[in-house]
Design goal:
Blueprint: H1 2-74, H2 80-90, E1 95-104, E2 107-116, E3 119-126, E4 132-139, H3 180-193, E5 200-209, E6 212-221, E7 224-231, E8 237-244
Length: about 240
């Protein structure tokens, strides 16, 4: 019985010792982690301070560079008269019509418009160094405008009547009651009544149609042809035809 108690006590002592050692090691590990965290925090703060200093330096350099660029891009080093002379020299003479100062891809440039005869030169000169950059050439070509021929209405001349070749046809009237001009007016009125516009008079002549003398008036609009037959005595429309080519 005594031996058993000793054994139990030894086991309890061992357990207590193990717990104590574990606690010591845990405490040491926590202390190490805490120190590492403190060191990391210090490093982060130092790094953030260095980044802030770099940003301030970069901002200062950017502002200074922009100021120099603006000053350089807005103030030419050569006069406009010098730019004119350089442009005329490269254009082999001529007269300056216009000059303009502008910035081309960050380069302050004079654009000089020079006219030499029928040729126009656009000369570009560096406004800072006075060097020639490039030149564009344009030639004024005047093309004579050819008049567009206007189609004139064809007046058909009826051949002299050689006798009545058709049975029952009367003599061709020399002075019909309806003149040719009046027949054209009646034909135009008929086209308007039918809602037809844009037709052009092609020809008109007197002919025998349906047992009577008529004025045959022909109009054309594109590929469409209109033929209107008008009685020479009464002005009555005898027939209206519409054909397509």
């Amino acid at each position: 019985m005594k031996k058993f108690c000793i054994t139990v006590s030894a086991i309890a002592f061992m357990l207590i010792g193990s717990l104590a050692i574990s606690a010591v090691f845990n405490q040491s590990e926590l202390s190490t982690q805490a120190a590492q965290v403190n060191n990391d925090s210090a490093s982060v703060e130092a790094l953030q301070e260095e980044i802030a200093q770099l940003r301030a330096l970069l901002q200062e350099l950017t502002t200074s560079f922009a100021g120099n660029q603006n000053q350089q891009s807005s103030t030419p080093a050569i006069s406009s008269q010098s730019a004119r002379e350089i442009a005329i020299e490269n254009a082999s003479g001529g007269e300056v019509r216009d000059i303009m100062l502008f910035t081309d891809n960050g380069v302050l440039t004079f654009e000089v418009d020079v006219r030499n005869g029928e040729t126009r030169y656009m000369v570009y000169v560096n406004a800072t160094s006075g060097t020639f950059i490039r030149m564009n050439t344009y030639t004024d070509t005047v093309t004579a405008v050819q008049p567009v021929p206007v189609a004139q209405p064809q007046t058909y001349v009826q051949p002299a009547y050689q006798g009545n070749s058709r049975q029952g046809r009367s003599e061709r009237p020399a002075n019909p009651a309806i003149s040719a001009d009046r027949a054209i007016e009646i034909a135009n009125e008929e086209l308007s009544r039918r809602g037809i516009s844009g037709a052009t008079l092609r020809k008109h002549y007197m002919d025998w149609e349906r047992g009577q003398w008529v004025w045959e008036v022909e109009f054309r609009n594109g590929r469409t042809e209109y033929e209107i037959y008008i009685n020479v005595d009464t002005g009555e429309i005898v027939k209206f035809e519409q054909d397509w080519d």
